[in-house]
Design brief:
Largest sheet: 8 strands, mixed
Strand order of the largest sheet: 1-7-8-6-5-2-3-4
Number of domains: 1
Distance between the termini: 18 Å
Shape: globular
Order of helices and strands: EHHHHHHHEHEHEHEHEHHHEE
Number of helices: 14
Organism: Folsomia candida
CATH superfamily: Vaccinia Virus protein VP39
Pfam family, one: Methyltransf_32
CATH class: Alpha Beta
CATH topology: Rossmann fold
Protein name: Protein RRNAD1
Structural class: alpha/beta
InterPro entries: Methyltranfer_dom, METTL25
Length: 367
Amino acid sequence: MVIIQEQETRHWMSLIYKFLSKFAWLADSFVLDFYEKSHWNMLPLSCQDFLPTLKSHDLADLLDFNSISNKHGWEASLKRKQIPPLNLLALRSTVKLLSLNRRLVIDGQNDEKSDDYVDEFKTLFSRHVKPKKRHEIISFCSVVSKMCNSSSTSHIFDVGSGLGHLSRYLSYGCSLNLTCIDCVNKFGESATKFDSELESFLTKRKAGSHSRPPIHICARLELNKHEKELQLQDENFGIVGLHSCGNLGPVIIHNYVNSPAKFALSVGCCWQKMDGNGYAHQAVKNLDINLSDDSLKTEEIDKMLKDWFKVVLFFSLRQLVANVVETLVILDRSLFIKENLPDAHVQIVALFDPEISPRNLAIISER
């Protein structure tokens, strides 16, 4: 858990900027350019010699800072005669130092069965939800429920609600009023169908919630455009987003700062999500090229295919640096809240078990 204080956060971010100024070339690299730009040759010679000696499980340990099974450290897990080069050890240590800790500190699983919990609800709810998502929702809802109780809030805006799994649990399982916003209309239609199934199921068993069904709105929220729905509300509501993709994370933060919302809870994802519309069409369908089998059996291509593991090795290092990039994004969003709402309590919490849901860092703020 990290409690955001402006001075400390700015210093942390300045260290990250300094680090990324040296490793931006690695963070910004693309798989498609590996051979085109000779990425492998950009690594220090000591790393070029050492990395090919690693096995797949060694790479997993290289990237894992939070597993209990890796508590003795990556270096100890290698159990090899060859010592990792100092520049690689320094890189990993610096990434660990600068990155947010993903180890679980809040476990909402114990709240899964409260006195009011209905077994039939759990059974039907699970029909449409995968185990990973169930774990996320149960932990997420546990925190939302506590924040609602502490702030006397009963109305929640779920931004990027998708099929409504989160809002359904909050509505029928926690007796909260939900307004769900998503830009894909068919998601809202499917969510309404699932809501009706659950409502009918619980009504037949006389176990229905006293809350009204979630309200689903099809709308595209844009950054720096504070929606009417939020501006017209009284002060007793919160804004949440579970794995809100791309720009939805900043949208949640901006709307929280510029509305009377009591609290915000946001778990972001897809930090570098790009608009790939038409990419495949332009790159493939529009190319009038016929590839024969012989043209794919050159010595150059054969050598590239044999070097496939070098691609894995190189982009494992990129994944390592990505921890720092994600930390910077989350710190920046948290600092934005603190700058605009100096009296607000802002913290970053690892909300889910990282071995089940690696994208587990939540920004939690209360006024």
